[in-house]
Structures are given as C-alpha cells and as structure tokens.
Write a structure and sequence with these properties.
437 residues, 17-stranded parallel sheet, 5 helices, globular, signal, T9SS C-terminal target domain-containing protein
Length: 437
C-alpha cells in the first residue's frame, strides 16, 4: 500500500512539474494538437460529393457524416434557424462560385465535432491553394464601437436581393450566442472579393460571449485566419497555420479572450501588407467609431506564436519577416505567459501611441518568453526603444529573453504530421535581462 501511495505521489509530482515548466505558451499534459488537426491537408482525400448545399437555410437543418457536401455559392443560415453538423462531416467549398457559409444574426450553427471526428471545411480543387473558396462567417448582435450596425454585403459580389437582410451585424446583446464551433478545421479559405479585399477563414462579427469556440484550426488562409469585429468572443485552443494574412485580428471594440492558442507563420507565404500573428485595433478609420464606447480589449493568455524560417537572419534582411504583435491607437492588450519566437521585432506599437505610463498600463506583457527575435518591443518607425526596454524589462513583469533555435525551444516542430509546439522541458535557459537580445 505504501508503495502504491509513493508511486501515485511521484506521478502527481511529475505531472505538476511538467505543467509548471510549460506554463508559458500553449500548455497541456498531452499534446492537444494530436488527432483532430491536419498539417498536410493537401494530401487528404475527403471523397466524392454526394449532396449539394445552396441557397438560404431558413429552417432547422442537420448535416450528416455519411454524406460529402458541396457548398455552392453564398449560403445563409437565417430566420433564426439552426444548422447542426454531425461530428466527422466534411463540407467542401466550391472554387468557381466563391462558396461561403454565413450564419446570420439570430441564427445558430452547432458544429460540435470531436477529437477523433473533427468537422472539416475544405476546397474542391484537385490541387488546393489558399483562397480557393470564401470562408465561414458568424454574425451576431453583440455591441461594437462603430456608429450604427455593420454589414458584410461587400463580401458578396452577386448577392441576391432577398438576402440583403442576412448580412447585417451588431446590437446590444453582449451575452448572446451564435452556437458552437468545436473541433472544426477550415482549410484553403479566403477567396479574393476585390482588388484588395478577401474573405477571412473565420469571421466573427459582433458574436456574443456565450458562443462556444474551441479547438478550431484555420490553415492556409489567403488572408486573415481569425477575424473578430466587436462582440466578446472567447477563443480557446485556436490554431492558425501558415496564413497569408493576420492570424488573429481584433477590431472595433471587441472585448475578447484568447487562450492556449497557436499561430505558426512561414516567411515564404506571408502577404506584404503586414502579416502578423496578432493585431489589436480599435478602428480602421477613426471617423466611423463612437469614442464614448469601449475600445478594443484583448486578454491573451498562453499563446505560442512562431515563425518557421530556414534562415531567419537572411529572411529578415530580405524583408520577409515582420513583427508578431501589433497594437493600434486606443486598443488594449493584456498578454501573459506567452511565447513569441522568431520575429522582427516581437511587438510593434502604432506610431500614434504616446509612450507614457497611462498608455503602457493598457498594453501589458508579463511572464512572457521572447525568443530569437530581432528586437523586442518598439514603436512604429522608431528605432529607439530604450523607454520600452526599461518598462517591460523591469523584473516585476517576469519577462524572459533568449536566443534558442526552434529545435532547442519546442518539443518537436519538425514532425510534419504531429508537431508539438509546447516548450521543451529543462531546455530553456531563462534570463530576465532584456539586453540579451
């Protein structure tokens, strides 16, 4: 009996030790990326289409795993209908018709997959490319800081007149719900809709904070992977993999939480228009917002954002590597226990942000791990970051700085099928000296 108690104690101690040492970046006793994610989606054969989804879904509808669905054109779930998708179901977006699925305000989607049976949205092209189809859009009635309500009508070049009422978002219901997205993959989305406009892989516009958003992977998006406008979403275990645009984009007064999530960038496929892992803005144009309303606030905990580069210094010289995090004027970010690895620099603040205590208290970085970055925290177009170094380098923030290569920093980033982006145990030589970089 004593031996059993001792074994149990040792096991619990070991588990506690693992969690403690991996408390920065994505965490978990096991690699939670296993089974439901796919890092080589181009090699997947999802079978032949057996059903077509087109037009408007205006009554409760269920999709089943036994079928393969082709999403044709702009499909709206509207009139307070609920679209339920069975675990393991595959929905294939049509390339020619720029297929998209929009959950209109008042409607719901229940896409509740499982670790071994995720729900997949993908492309119907034989050779798949980023931007093959539109994407998935959820529209809610939570608040934002724009005047009036918003619309995504510009996303649809051939919008039917009967569907104009389905593209609006915004309201006053902060605790509303648009349903469930759990164990869901969205592949090759982000179709171009104009000279400079694209769909996002997953757009969440004024979505209420009771919407369940967990274990969602957006891979090879031609533009932004996750775009959040207003509302108050809670993203947990979200994965953005090799998007061309921004991995996690927050704007227009959203009050959002993102936790235990991952963004993996490649310098060879990023857009030249400012591709970042996380961007927090309060507006794109200050003339369209009501400053009496809340600006954007993002609470980001246990994120891992990394740039996979074969030759980081060379890629930086060629201008292929940008900053990981960008914070705009009047936006707030509280980032804790996160890893930023391989960027130029780690964080960039908008030029209009005045560096003073009031503003810096709105932009917090604590218990961070800055690794292998060409500089840490700067103001846009300003090469002197001495004030920021003094502030964020204060030992009270417990930030850590290192120059470790990926193989020394993460458990297994080379595994093409089952990579593990958790910090490697007992390999981190930590220092809180910001000048190490």
């Amino acid at each position: 009996m004593k031996s059993l108690i001792k074994i149990v104690f040792i096991f619990l101690f070991a588990i506690g030790n693992i969690c403690a040492q991996q408390e920065k970046g994505i965490v978990g006793v096991n690699n939670w990326l296993n089974n439901w994610t796919e890092f080589k989606p181009s090699q997947q054969d999802y079978g032949e289409v057996t059903q077509i989804i087109t037009g408007n879904i205006i009554e409760d509808t269920k999709l089943y795993k036994r079928y393969r669905y082709l999403l044709l054109g702009n499909v709206f779930v509207a009139n307070d209908a609920t679209l339920t998708i069975e675990p393991g179901t595959v929905i294939i977006g049509d390339y020619e018709s720029k297929a998209s699925l929009t959950i209109s305000k008042g409607a719901k989607i229940i896409a509740d997959g499982s670790e071994t049976d995720p729900i997949v949205f993908t492309s119907n092209r034989s050779v798949k490319r980023a931007g093959d189809w539109g994407g998935l859009i959820l529209l809610g009635d939570a608040p934002m800081n724009k005047f009036g309500n918003g619309s995504v009508s510009n996303y649809y070049t051939d919008l039917d007149q009967s569907s104009y009422g389905y593209v609006n978002y915004g309201g006053e219901t902060a605790n509303g719900t648009s349903g469930i997205l759990r164990y869901v993959r969205i592949e090759y989305a982000g179709k171009r809709i104009g000279r400079t406009d694209y769909f996002s892989g997953l757009l969440l516009a004024c979505v209420g904070n009771e919407t369940i958003l967990e274990n969602i992977m957006v891979s090879y998006a031609a533009n932004n992977a996750f775009e959040i406008i207003g509302g108050g979403v809670n993203l947990n275990k979200a994965v953005s993999y090799k998007s061309n645009g921004i991995d996690f984009k927050f704007n227009y007064g959203t009050q959002s939480v993102i936790s235990n999530s991952l963004a993996v960038r490649s310098p060879y496929i990023s857009s030249s228009n400012g591709s970042r892992c996380l961007q927090a803005l309060s507006y794109s144009n200050n003339k369209e917002v009501d400053f009496s309303k809340k600006g954007t606030f993002v609470d980001a905990d246990n994120l891992t954002v990394l740039n996979l580069s074969d030759n980081l210094s060379n890629d930086i010289k060629m201008g292929l590597v940008k900053e990981a995090i960008f914070i705009g004027e009047n936006a707030s970010l509280d980032m804790n226990k996160s890893v930023i690895s391989g960027f130029n620099p780690a964080v960039l603040l908008a030029e209009k942000i005045t560096i003073n205590q009031e503003n810096l208290e709105k932009i917090k970085f604590s218990e961070m791990y800055f690794n292998n970055c060409n500089g840490n925290i700067f103001v846009e177009h300003n090469s002197n970051n001495e004030d920021l170094e003094n502030w964020y380098g204060n030992s009270a923030f417990f930030n850590v700085y290192s120059k470790g290569v990926d193989s020394q920093t993460f458990i297994d980033v080379q595994n093409e099928r089952r990579p593990d982006f958790r910090l490697k145990i007992n390999k981190i030589i930590a220092t809180n000296d910001i000048n190490e970089n």
